C-alpha cells in the first residue's frame, strides 16, 4: 500500500499526488490522508471516474480514502463529442456590465434549450456566483444538470467569495479537474 499525506495541501495538490501514486503501481492500494471535505469529495469523484473502488474512514478532522487499483479497472471514456463550456464571469463579453449580465443570462438560457448539449459546464473565478442560491440563472443551470450536463464549480473560488455553503447546483471541483476537462474536450466554448 502506498500512503499519500496530503494534509494541509490545497486543491489541486491532493489529486495530483494521488494520480502520481496510482501511476506508480499496476495493482494495489493507495491510502490518501486529507484534512478537508472538498479534497475528499474530489478524490472520491476521481476514483469513480477512473473506475476504482474506494473506502473512506473519518477520524476527527482527518479523512483517509483507500483507493483500490485493480488491473481490470479502466478509466471511463466517452467516444462521443466532448463539448465543455467555461464560465468565469457574471458578464458576457467586454463593455457595459449591465449589457454583459443580460447577455450571460441569455447565453445560459439558450444553452439550456439547445438540442446538442455540452458534456460539462465549468464555473470558476466570478462565474461561481452564477451557481449559488438566489442567482439569476440558477434555474436554467439546474435544467442543464437535469438534462445530464455535468456542472462543476471551483472550490477555491467558492471559498474565496465565501459562498461555498450557498452552492445551489452541481458539485465542487478543483483546478486539476477544471484543466483536465478542458484538455480532454473536443471543443471548449467560452462566452
Can you offer a commentary on this structure?
- This protein has 191 residues and is an alpha/beta fold.
- The chain folds into two domains: 2-69, 2-Layer Sandwich (Translation Initiation Factor IF3); 83-189, DsrEFH-like (Hypothetical Protein Ychn, Chain: A, 3-Layer(aba) Sandwich).
- The protein is built from six helices and nine strands; from the N terminus they run βαβαβββαβαβαβαβ.
- α3 runs parallel beside α4.
- The radius of gyration is 18 Å and the shape is elongated.
- The mean pLDDT is 92.
Secondary-structure element series: EHEHEEEHEHEHEHE
Q: What is the fold named in CATH at topology level of the largest domain?
A: Hypothetical Protein Ychn, Chain: A
Share of β-strand residues: 15-25%
Helix-and-strand structural type:
alpha/beta
Helix content: 25-40%
Radius of gyration: 18 Å
Contiguous uncertain segments of 5+ residues: none
- How many angstroms separate the termini? 45 Å
Mean pLDDT: 92
What is the topology, as strand order, of the major beta sheet? 8-7-6-5-9
CATH class of the largest domain: Alpha Beta
Q: What is the overall number of helices?
A: 6
* Major sheet description: 5 strands, parallel
Judging by the overall fold, what is the CATH architecture of the largest domain? Answer: 3-Layer(aba) Sandwich
CATH homologous superfamily annotation of the largest domain: DsrEFH-like
Amino acid at each position: 500500500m502506498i500512503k499519500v499525506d496530503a494534509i494541509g495541501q490545497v486543491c489541486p495538490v491532493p489529486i495530483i499526488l494521488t494520480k502520481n501514486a496510482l501511476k506508480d503501481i499496476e495493482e494495489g492500494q493507495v491510502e490518501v490522508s486529507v484534512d478537508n471535505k472538498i479534497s475528499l469529495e474530489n478524490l472520491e469523484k476521481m476514483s469513480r471516474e477512473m473506475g476504482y473502488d474506494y473506502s473512506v474512514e473519518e477520524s476527527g478532522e482527518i479523512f483517509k480514502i483507500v483507493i483500490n487499483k485493480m488491473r481490470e479497472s479502466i478509466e471511463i471514456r466517452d467516444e462521443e463529442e466532448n463539448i465543455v463550456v467555461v464560465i468565469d464571469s457574471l458578464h458576457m463579453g467586454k463593455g457595459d456590465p449591465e449589457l454583459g449580465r443580460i447577455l450571460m443570462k441569455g447565453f445560459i438560457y439558450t444553452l439550456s434549450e439547445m438540442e446538442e448539449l455540452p458534456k460539462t459546464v465549468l464555473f470558476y473565478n466570478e462565474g461561481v456566483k452564477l451557481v449559488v442560491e438566489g442567482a439569476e440563472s440558477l434555474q436554467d443551470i439546474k435544467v442543464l444538470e437535469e438534462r445530464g450536463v455535468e456542472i462543476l464549480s471551483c472550490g477555491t473560488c467558492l471559498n474565496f467569495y465565501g459562498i461555498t455553503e450557498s452552492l445551489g447546483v452541481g458539485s465542487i471541483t478543483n483546478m486539476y479537474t477544471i484543466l483536465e476537462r478542458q484538455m480532454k474536450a473536443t471543443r471548449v466554448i467560452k462566452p
